Amino acid sequence: MKTKKKLAIVTGGGSGIGFAIAEAFVQSDIHTIIVGRDQEKLRAACDRLGSNCNSISCDLTQLDKIPSVVSGIIAEYGHIDILVNNAGINMKKAFIEVTDQDFQGILQTNVTAVFSFSREVVKHQLSKGIKGVVINISSMASQYGIPKVIAYTASKAAIEGMTRAMATELSPHGIRINCIAPGFIATDMSARALDADPERKSKAIGRTPMGYLGQPSDIGAAALFLASDTAKYITGVILPVDGGNAVGF
Description:
The chain is an alpha/beta fold. Helix content is about 45%, strand content about 15%. This is SDR family oxidoreductase.
């Protein structure tokens, strides 16, 4: 199924923010491959997104599988233009209760898998002279301290540092690396966290100057912009999409 359209990969594209990013790409005629662990969720997402979308089931924590996933996509479609590293996991736990295994598990998914997937895609882009785009998804947790999410916070701070380092090294070759830091976005995941903690939800909205939760489509629009030629002179940025939360008081 070789395609001349731009081709994007969105990890964690079966739901939430990842789905919204995939939807924005598909609607802009970018053929999009969504990657995740839940085959049923991926199939449902592809049904909603239509023929411009395909899926691959893969546990990204199994790092040895990533090279074959990337090479398989290249063999089938011919090229990879855009990678969005969206897949990630969180854990709400008091600092002193987080085990080494807990901590490493978060880093494996949120940092090491992002590095491995990016490396394999960039190898291909460099070998083919593709002016590619990598977009990492961070979090407001990297900007300031949020209690009980120490491993997640560490992982997202690492993602932002990695974004800058990758941009410096790869941009001279025409590969742009940027990062989006979502604020409080209305997803099923955030609903479970905030609805169970009304005080936290009130605080989140209260310090957001725009006064409401963002929508997944807001992140999709930002990703589409950063992936497009309109952003051709933008690299190495951490773009907050948070209704002003990071600067709110």
